[in-house]
Amino acid sequence: MSNDTTMWGAERPVSFSSQNSLYALTIAYHSDWNRIGATAYLEGLDQGKTCSLSRLEPEFSTPFAKTRYSLDDRYVSRKPITIQQLNGRLLITPHPEGTAIRIDGFHVRAPHYVFEEQLKTGVVVELGARVIVVLHSLTPDRRSPNMHRMLGVSEGIENIRRSVDRVADLNVPVLIRGETGTGKELVASALHNASPRCTRPMLAVNVGAIPESLAISELFGAKKGAFTGANKDKPGYFSQANNSTLFLDEIGDAPDEVQVALLRTLETSEVRPVGGTETLKVDVRLVAATDADLESKLESQDFRNPLLQRLAGFEIWIPRLAQRKPDIGLLLSEFLRYEFDAIAEQRHYQELDPDSEMLWYQFFRHALEFDWPGNIRQMRNVARQVAIHNRLAGFTSIPPRVEAMLLEQNQRQQEQEQTPPDNNGIEQEPTPVPGSIIHHYARPRQGEAVSNAAPPPPNRRKPSTIEESELMEALQRQRWDLKNTAEDLNISRAALYKMIEANPNVRKAGDLSVDELTQSYERCAGNLEQMVDELHVSKAALKRRIKELAIG
Predict the structure, then answer these.
(1) CA 310 to CA 412: how far, in whole Å?
(2) Are 40 and 59 contacting, i.e. CB atoms less than 8 angstroms apart?
(3) If we measure between CA atoms, which residue out of 326, 325, 335, 400 comes closest to residue 33?
(4) Where are the alpha helices (DSSP H) in 478-511?
(5) Cβ–Cβ < 8 Å for 171, 366
(6) What is the spatial order of strands in the sheet that 245-249 belongs to?
(7) Between residues 180 and 460, which one has the greater pLDDT?
(8) pLDDT at residue 194 above 70?
(9) For the whole model, what pTM was predicted?
(10) What is the CA radius of gyration of the chain?
(11) Structural domains of the chain, with CATH
(12) Residue 399 above 90 pLDDT?
């Protein structure tokens, strides 16, 4: 793999004629990693057709392969889950004797609606704690005929491909915008490679990394003797990129002097080296990128409006990785493959036993829930950490720091979630084993017959049977950890959250005043275990609250 962060070597022409939304299922995890990223297009839903999801259907395929195949997992039932379009929504109906499913983390036993806004990002559907697919929408009538070496099937990545198609051969500046780590240089490379300038290499420069005192000479060149150390004429980046593409990353960090000079060059196609008296004509296609809020910089006068208008001849916005759920499984599997291959440890994804299958299932599941604040760059780093952690290891495991990162954020999100409406037929999933990414879901022992039927629903208690004294005892026993307490009481986390909201004697971290928290921190010398005993709030919640208030 090159320095590109999201690559796929195949080209794929896809064309659809319908003007309505097209829906698709993309495999986000399968024990056969070759199937991850394969997509099945659910055509005909807008015409009243019912689509089925089971072990045998639909048929999935990848852009670069002619082979089509079903999920073909023995733990996924042949009895289908059905998908229909009703009143602008999709209705997912589990089979009463089929595979147990979860939708976006909730166990679903009755017909369940998903809405168009959810489908734009992607709805995660887990099948029998074995396979994960993402149900998502696409714009069907404008599929790009070129992959542009960008990996993924989401509408977000397809919008980028279409933008590249529209502007690549035009001699206009392009401004690429998106959070750090989203792959802005990859998009710039796609623009260059699809342009008439592709016969010459693109020159990539990080403006933010150039010392301010050298920025002008680095960009526009310097004549011999222009300053101390200038022993000969030095061409700038614009001259080096003549007849090609110059990619300026972190353009939002450009000093004011550089902004003025850039604006002049964009208007005149001329550069004047430092110490020179003559201007030089250059033929350069400028592509710039930033993760900065340029509109705020305009208001604070840290960025010049005329330059922004010149740079933004065409803008391409890159979505956050968390907004591209159909792509997460494929990206993660490709990065893991690459890192394992680099250290000759392919066995960790090619030779899976039941335990490693479950581990990878849970790892991908949590990856789909994770927010990925560092986007693709963070995911690639995580893949490298996982691979190196497993080098020369006898069995596959997840590095503790990676595991803690995924679980901590997901627990925080779950604590903020509210119970969905009862008429949607959903219930939160059983509590996982704390501190482990492997949730030991029941699976057949060796030699046992495999049943296609869903496992029986958990026999949970009614919250109304739990007295306040029992609730308080369980909270104390579990040191105020809500996930563990829900498991202790044999109720769902959603039910526990409702009980806590209704009970004035149970405190939350957000109820603690700054003074109270500060005094406890000082008394306990920052020892969180002692603070838990004193304040009756979970350790994780205390840790977050202390960080929010910058105590200590």
Answers:
(1) 43
(2) yes
(3) 335
(4) 482-489, 493-502
(5) no
(6) 203-206, 245-249, 285-290, 174-177, 315-317
(7) 180
(8) yes
(9) 0.73
(10) 27
(11) 22-142 (2.60.200.20), 155-317 (3.40.50.300), 323-417 (1.10.8), 463-549 (no CATH)
(12) yes
Place of tokens 């529209």: 166
SS3 content of the chain, % helix, strand, coil (to 5): 40, 15, 45
Give the pLDDT score at 483: 85
Report how far apart the first and last C-alpha atoms of the chain are (Å, whole number). Answer: 44
Mean pLDDT calculated for residue range 42-52: 92
| CA dist., res. 402 & res. 151, Å (int) | 24
pLDDT single digits (tens) 539-549: 888 887 787 67
Q: Where is 407: in which H helix or E strand? A: helix 400-416
Q: Encode pLDDT of 68-98 as tens digits.
A: 999 999 999 999 999 999 888 999 999 999 9
The pLDDT score that the predictor gives to residue 421 is 38
Query: Is the CA virtual torsion 229, 234, 237, 238 positive or negative?
Result: positive
Name the more confident of 466 and 327: 327
* Cα angle: 492, vertex 29, 75; to 5 degrees: 70
pLDDT band at 457 (very low <50, low <70, confident <90, very high): very low
Amino acid in position 342:
A
* pLDDT of amino acid 217: 92
Q: Helices 514-523 and 528-535 meet at what angle, rounded to 10?
A: 130
Give dist(CA 119, CA 136) in Å, integer: 4
Average pLDDT for 274-286: 91
What does the buried/exposed string (b/e) look like for 475-493 if buried means 16 or more CB atoms within 10 Å of the residue's CB?
beebebbbbbbbbbbebbb
3-state secondary structure 171-235: CCCEEEECCCCCCHHHHHHHHHHCCHHHHCCCEEEEHHHCCHHHHHHHHHCECCCCCCCCCCCEC
